[in-house]
Amino acid sequence: MTFLVQTEPLATIERLAVAASRWATVDVLARPAGLPIHALTFGVADKAAPALFISGGVHGLERIGTDVAIAYLQSLVARLAWDEALHDLLTRMRIVIVPLVNPVGMARGTRANGSGVDLMRNAPDAGLGGTPLVGGQRISAKLPWFMGNGAAMEEEAAALVQIVERELFTAPFAIALDLHSGFGVIDRLWYPYARTREPIPDHDRIVAFSQLLDGALPNHVYRLEQTARVYTIRGDLWDYLYDRRRSLGDGMLLSLTLEMGSWSWVRKNPLQGLSTFGRFNPIKPHRHRRTLRRHLPLLDVLLHAVVSYRRWLP
Ligand SMILES: [Zn+2]
Description:
36% of the residues lie in helices and 17% in strands. By secondary structure, the protein is of the alpha/beta class. It starts with 7 loop residues before the first helix and ends with a helix. It has one domain: Zn peptidases (Aminopeptidase), CATH 3.40.630. The chain has eleven helices and eight strands. A hairpin with a 6-residue loop joins strand 1 and strand 2 (37-43). An eight-stranded mixed sheet has the order 1-2-4-3-5-8-6-7, sandwiched between helices. Helix 1 packs parallel to helix 2 and helix 2 (63-80) crosses helix 9 (285-294). The radius of gyration is 18 Å and the shape is globular.
């Protein structure tokens, strides 16, 4: 397999994993085509503690998601060197970061993994349905949004499911934030379900989270909405994980997808719309830096919302 795009994010992640090793457990979850999928776990060992999970790069083309996860990781590692309040938080909770779920897709500059599968649509037992094509298709790996052939899950998707089950399913409350880019001009925070416009059973908790977000980050940039409001997806990994966690009883996984609106970057710099990479990522350095710092306040609020869940969750 030849890699068309440099794998510089992987080098950064490996460097940060070394720097973080004083405070974090570093796992390699899988090695598709020899490229590692890292997971860094910070905080208390007790699996009954609440947890925050951050992932990026499920779609290899959406490099900015991995860059935001890396920026958060950098900030975390730097702050652990001096921040007493952060250390206190981490005695009561855990943070798990998987900055690059699809290293082969990122190295090749493709949305899908090395087998042409859209990992976000690769959950087990996924029937067909949803919005035609974009909602997942089983016609061909040569077309986008290919869900896989319905047999075993792809190793990247299986690795993600496995670590979420291992690290979040025993927590009384967990938030997962999966970082994506591409759709629309605004930044959206999507919650389940993706497969149907029916509200999730925990809808009252979404309402409480929405109020928490509006109060803690006045004038924030996010539109909080159900994924299926835009289009319906079958085989959505986060629908699958949300339901599985729910089926275990007591406790909740609030799974969110941050869909960074890339059309505004294209609108301000139309030439970048001519490249596939440019349609999903900020190209100008000042816009890239702005995107990296734009979401740090959200991540901070999520951290506090997780550790304080008893105070606001209905
Ligand atoms: Zn995506």
